[in-house]
Design a protein that fits this description.
Blueprint: H1 3-6, H2 8-36, H3 44-57, H4 64-78, H5 83-141, H6 150-186, H7 192-195
Helix pairs in contact: 2-3, 2-4, 2-5, 3-5, 4-5, 5-6
Length: about 200
């Protein structure tokens, strides 16, 4: 009796576990793709978490060692088995390998799109800071003030002049930021939410 015959049950269990783990891993990758490509608008922190999860799952996308091991063990394990059992196992592993092969292009596309999406989420974070700055400056400049003397009026005019200088100094940054947003929107891979602000 050979080693493979004597240990058939144990080796078959290990083989089945590895096949199941590969299928489970592919299911997780597909779920991660769905979350990264979702039409839901995430916060940047939420998107980063989903993207990081996706990237960690696909580190060893090719799974060359696993596929080679599964194929070698399948050949050895089922070589002397009945025709139907051997045929069923060949079909099963072939389906797993085919699913994996079909997953690779989706993963590549998702990697590219997730990079663009991430730039858009970072842009959104920066946009919030600019809006907060503008709102703060506007709030400082529109306060209702009852002025009773010329000294108070001059002081208020100085404050408004200061706010105008601050806004003027920030103008170039805001204009550059607008151009950056327009370039992001031109990318065909950019998410729909970027072109449709709330």
């Amino acid at each position: 009796m050979s080693f493979w015959s004597e240990n058939y049950s144990f080796i078959k269990d290990v083989y089945d576990t590895r096949v199941c783990k590969m299928v489970e891993w592919m299911d997780h990758v597909e779920m991660a793709i769905t979350k990264v490509m979702a039409t839901k608008v995430y916060t940047s922190a939420e998107f980063k978490r989903e993207r990081d999860n996706f990237l960690s799952l696909i580190k060893d996308m090719e799974k060359a060692d696993t596929k080679k091991w599964l194929d070698e063990v399948k050949e050895t394990l089922f070589r002397d088995r009945a025709g139907d059992e051997r045929k069923d196992e060949y079909t099963r592993l072939e389906a797993v390998i085919e699913k994996h092969q079909n997953l690779i292009p989706r993963v590549s596309e998702t990697q590219v799109k997730s990079e663009v999406f991430w730039k858009c989420y970072e842009y959104g974070d920066d946009l919030i800071q600019i809006f907060e700055f503008i709102d703060d400056q506007r709030a400082k400049s529109v306060r209702d003030v009852i002025i009773g003397d010329t000294e108070a009026t001059e002081e208020l005019m100085d404050k408004h002049g200061s706010i105008m200088r601050i806004m003027e100094n920030k103008r170039k940054t805001v204009e550059e930021f607008i151009v950056k947003g327009e370039k992001l929107m031109e990318d065909p891979k950019s998410p729909k939410f970027l072109g449709n602000p709330c």
